[in-house]
Amino acid sequence: MTSSDAILARLMQLHPKVIDLSLDRMHRILAALGNPERRIPPAIHIAGTNGKGSTQAMIRAGLESAGLRVHAYTSPHLAQFHERIRLAGELIPETELAAVLEECEAANGGAPITFFEITTAAAFLAFSRAPADYTLLEVGLGGRLDATNVIDSPALTVITPISIDHTQYLGETLEQIAGEKAGILKRRVPCIVAPQEPAARAVIEEKAERLFAPLRIARQDWDSRREGDALIYQDDHGLMDLPLPVLPGPHQIVNAGTAIAALRELGFGRIEARAAVTEGEWPARMQRLTHGPLVAAAGDCELWLDGGHNPAGGAAVAATLSAMAKKPTHLVCGMLNTKDVAGYMRPLTSVAQSLTAVAIPGEPNTLPAEDTAAAAASVGLAATTAPDALTAVRRIAADHPGARILVCGSLYLAGQVLRENG
């Protein structure tokens, strides 16, 4: 166990709830730390239900192609906590991570604070001490009361597509959820808005009008689409013919457009836009696995990994599979008990031949494999269970040689797979 692991374990015990949306505790600890959030490089704040991470990765690639240094904050991590905090493009070093975590722990003085809040404070502290040109901040949950929403004057805000998710925290309706996401809007700060359902767009527009926040809205002020093997991006400045995103899936056309719109708003052009789509990397989003024990167990089967976990994520995976070369596809799926499991699986019934359900090891909120299988069966997927992903992959490979296997359903399962396969 590293020093940071031991500190993180202690920080997990500071609040009885994993999620308790409020900004009061953040303001308290940041004040005790001397308000480092006021000294970070210009922030680009990103909220939304799906596509936040991919969009952030493409914005970062574009900015870095211009020779700029970029901090980035994202969650959750996959293989190690350090992934959440990038300092000028590099994962935060262990010694520095342990130091800022200890400093935040001391400043907090044992008071109740959630794990996400105190680690977000640590990220702000690290960002305030390292020179950079921009800071990319990905919202953890919602927006209005998210721990990242303590930045008074970001350079830009971005709202990716909004859909139903986390209803126990954000509200039951799309309008309520959009209201929470639109909470990152700031007075007179421009916002890039990805394609939205009309109800969500109306909420964003109403909030922006009250704050005099200029909106750059998809399919009104800018557009991105696929034509053959090219990505076409168009806005008031003209049209760009670009390569398709290296991140696979039709939904990445939208994410790429959102990232390019953000770069254009910041004053960048074709070179940075091209880098965004060709150099953006984001693991566990329809990622082809190429080595490790799981790949060996798959034999001559293709092995893919995706961490989408809500109905919109399921639809995106289904659309990606539909666009790939036709091949029998079998799913290995682990889900959390806080998710709309049947809603996630419903779009996959048209592209998958079977689903093998597993529990997510070490995750207290994992859905039992039997419950995941029952949800799959309820929407028409042939389903069975396995004790773990390795066993599931080995069985599928034996029964369906040459097939495509997709491990999916949760970022926590994806993280375990990545850790175990290097």
How would you describe the overall organization of this protein?
Belongs to the folylpolyglutamate synthase family. Keywords: ATP-binding, Folate biosynthesis, Ligase, Magnesium, Metal-binding, Nucleotide-binding. The protein is α/β, with parallel strands linked by helices and 422 residues long. It folds into 2 domains: 3-279, 3-Layer(aba) Sandwich (UDP-N-acetylmuramoyl-L-alanine:D-glutamate ligase), CATH 3.40.1190.10; 287-420, Mur ligase, C-terminal domain (Protein-Tyrosine Phosphatase, Chain A, Alpha-Beta Complex). 40% of the residues lie in helices and 17% in strands. It contains 16 helices and 17 strands. The strands form 3 sheets. The protein has an 8-stranded mixed β-sheet with strand order 4-3-2-5-1-6-7-8, sandwiched between helices. A 6-stranded mixed β-sheet has the order 12-13-17-14-15-16. Strands 9-10-11 form a 3-stranded antiparallel β-sheet, covered by helices on one side. Helix 3 packs across helix 10 (270-279). It is globular. The mean pLDDT is 95.
Question: How are the secondary structure elements laid out?
Answer:
Elements: H1 3-11, H2 24-32, E1 43-47, H3 52-65, E2 70-73, E3 85-87, E4 90-91, H4 94-108, H5 115-129, E5 134-138, E6 156-159, H6 167-170, H7 174-181, E7 191-193, H8 198-211, E8 215-217, E9 222-227, E10 230-235, E11 238-243, H9 251-265, H10 270-279, E12 287-288, H11 293-298, E13 302-305, H12 311-323, E14 329-333, H13 341-345, E15 354-357, H14 369-378, E16 383-385, H15 389-399, E17 404-408, H16 411-420
